[in-house]
Model the fold of this input.
Amino acid sequence: MSDPERPLDPDLLKGYAFRVFGTMQGAVTAALIHLGDRLGLYLALAESGPVDSEALATRTGLNERWVREWLHNQGAAGLVEAQDDGRFWLSPEGRAVLADEDHPAFGAGMFDQLPDLMGVLPKLAESFRTGLGLPYDALGVEGARGVERGFAPWYKTFLVPTLIPAVEGAADRLRAGGRVADVGCGAGIALIELARAFPEADLHGYDISRHALARAEANRKEAGAANVTFHHAEEDPLPDDGSVDLALTFDCLHDMTHPDRVMHAIRGALAADGAWVIADIKAQPTYGENVEKNPMAAMMYGFSVLTCMSSALSEPGGAGLGTLGFHADLARDMTRAAGFTRFQRLPVDHPVNAFYEVRP
Done:
């Protein structure tokens, strides 16, 4: 542990300054990832193979000088490969993460919301004074789109073949026309994937984000998913008649102002032999454990201030759990308080999330 009373060390000062400005380097590179995704530069690189800036500019219809500087940033950051002859290209890993929206590792979609995410900073300064955060809709349409593109690859790749079979009896119930309630459904991608696999199922999505629900309905129409219905949760809440066979909450409980109330509502909606699947961040009970076990802890706490905790404090008295605030012990205690008696972690591997099965 560093001694707070020791004199300033010139060598340590250099290292500290480098670490601080390293975060600035990450921030500006993130901005250029956003531009590369938005302008189709990664997709063009993935399709073309090694190209110079002139060829890439021609392929994308962009200005060569701007493309050249973008490539220099991306090459210096190690995100694109650079050759001595002035040509650049994407590695197979780069194509998966930055260009292929069907790959489960695709991550460029999360940068879609970056301008709106940074745009809330002036309002968040006031949140530090008042304690009141901002709802997700404060991030605008692009915020909803960024969340959608960030989570869609996993839903499309693993939800039906991996997660549903891990929940005993779930697939059979869905084939037989069982009812599903996806609480915090966002843009509805998970339900649309279930609709494709289980056309007899009765699928319902609930959310309070009007931007997300608008995208969900557009996605539903495009997919032709007639067995999916979306609801604004405050205007058309969950039923309380035990008619739901499978409830889902994916990456949303830690964002909610009152997750305990939602848990009680799910308990009232769920059939006596139904199941509730929770997906949420792999959080630890303490700050020290989060930092030790999660190499992205700083980013997670940062996202918490910008979005997750902010959303969870967007109403007076909000729980304010935050991105790393909903650990397994708390999840077990809260579900028990809501009237559930069985809680287990599912054997589903995911780099960020843990998955829990909860039953009455």
